[in-house]
Design goal:
Layout (H helix, E strand, L loop, with lengths): L1 E2 L4 H17 L7 H25 L7 E11 L2 E9 L1 H24 L6 H20 L3 H19 L6 H32 L4 H7 L5 H18 L8 H4 L5 H10 L4 H8 L1 H5 L2 H22 L5 H21 L5 H28 L17 H15 L5 H14 L3 H31 L15 H22 L3 H10 L12 H24 L13 H7 L4 H47 L6 H23 L1
Helix pairs in contact: 1-2, 1-4, 2-3, 2-4, 3-4, 3-10, 3-15, 3-19, 4-5, 5-6, 6-8, 8-11, 8-13, 10-15, 11-14, 13-14, 13-18, 14-15, 14-17, 14-18, 15-16, 15-17, 15-19, 15-20, 16-17, 16-18, 16-19, 17-18, 17-19, 17-21, 18-21
Length: about 625
Amino acid sequence: MVTSTSLVYLIALPLFGSAILLLAGRRSDKWGHLLATALSASSFGVGLYQLSQMLARPTEERAITQKLFSWINVGTFNVDAGLLLDQLSICFVLLITGVGTLIHIYSISYMSHDENRRRFFAFLNLFIAAMLLLVLGDSYLNLYVGWEGVGLASYLLIGFWNQKPAYATASKKAFVMNRVGDMGLSFAIMIAFATLGTVSFSGVQEASHTASKAALTGIGIMLLVAATGKSAQFPLQAWLGDAMAGPTPVSALIHAATMVTAGVYLIVRSNFIFDAAPTAQLLVVIVGAITLMFGALVGTAKDDIKKALAASTMSQIGYMVLGAGLGPAGYAFAIMHLLTHGFFKAGMFLGAGSVMHGMNDQVDMRRYGALRKFMPITFATFGLGYLAIIGVPPFAGFYSKDAIIETAFNAGGVKGILLGSTALLGAAITAFYMTRVMVLTFTSKERWEDDQHPHESPLLMWLPMAILAIGSVTTGFLFTRGHALVNWLAPVVGEHAEDEKVLLQPVVVSALALLAVVIGVAIAIRKYQLSDVEKVAPQNVSFFTRIARKDLMQDSFNEAVFMKPGQTLTALLVQGDEKVVDGAVRGVGTMALGAGSALRKTQTGFARSYAALILIGAIVLIAGIWVVTQ
């Protein structure tokens, strides 16, 4: 591992842009968006330069570090503010800055009529900087700073249009639920320090070889809690659908390509902990499997195009978490699906924004239809992302998702059959609900209102969509050619573990996955393309559709299990405080006031009263002396 002095520019450039735009205020309205975009692109350029430098070095010297300053130095606890760029973090750096720059370009046009566009770009730059710190930090404590930074930026961007109460509530919900997950990361850091004496990645990895299994299991479970919050995984997934309240570019950047994948990064980065803690690793697999099905089922009933894509994101990250939970056999495939997903899902979110732009901000897909004739570029780019996410060869998702399904089947025994079957069923449901989105939006009959006039988006919007669509087509093949990504990540996540007992050969898995896709697509076409799609009254839909539209009652569950008991406990504590603590304080005060009132009666202001008291006192004193002297 060698040192470098240029990593800081990756973070400093967008951070500088955010500071300039926020401090300059309205004076930067005319050029702020251009500065923010240029600095994001510059950070991407630095990332490409670092990649070229990394490729020029031998494999064992590709990881580089940079110490910024000594941060904490208390007794034996020493933490430097340092950066680490290795084969894993460079993947995220290029994804964050590359896709982030495309979304900046898209936003120039998308947000052109918003009077607060400059502030929006300041928040985008702030997010880019925080996300880069998250993936470049060389310790869990440094990562934690970026982790909280992206939480703040997400809150600001989701609630960007906070003049609408529902949007402000959505941003608060996302912020609070993420804080619940963040407590897990806090506890993981505390356990690591208390039991291992270090919080750096290298230090924890070295100490993990001699640490107790209980300590590693505790750290692993707490890291998983953190991942479920940030990556919208079960049981902390309820915030993601509401996060669609933010402008569509926010959904593409934060809630598709980058921030919601931070939990996957955390798990893969901590591979040495989970490999040594089988219980925690099993919980990762269970969470991923539950979430991929949960998101898929919710996606089947959503009529809001952005919320349908949000449910899809939840499900696809479930695949990534499942892959990461499969250990050395799945780490690289989890990252592969993360990267391919960053292209096709960001492209589809931007496509959804393009549709909204052409449909007067309408988000209900039941009010779309036949838009392929009016928005051919959006249809083509969105369609390529659609083919990628459902896993049609040779598009990106075919390579990455099938690899996870295959690894799940080959996990061994009943576990492998259950996980593989779950992943395969999820693929079929994905094909169904994504075909539903395509049909309702682009290929079914026209259903829009008379005042809507669909039209194609301008160049600055469709060009980023086109570039992302190219990634949807090519990245899967590029990552798997010669096991390129698996070999690239091996120094960080360990050598790829080949399955000892292969339950299903790759060709069989691919055939089953394609069959699942065909079944899902066929059902969706029959249900939505070959029959009339009209607005169905809520009372006429099926029971499953009703609960799926309500996100499988996740909010009702949280309210019943956590919120209402919490409110009751809070009310009891308030009453206890008022009646016990405040009551005791008031009692002391009442006693003092009573004593003062009684004593005040002796102070009449009359000389005769005082003379009488003096006489009585003298008699008592004399009587006391007489008694004592007898």
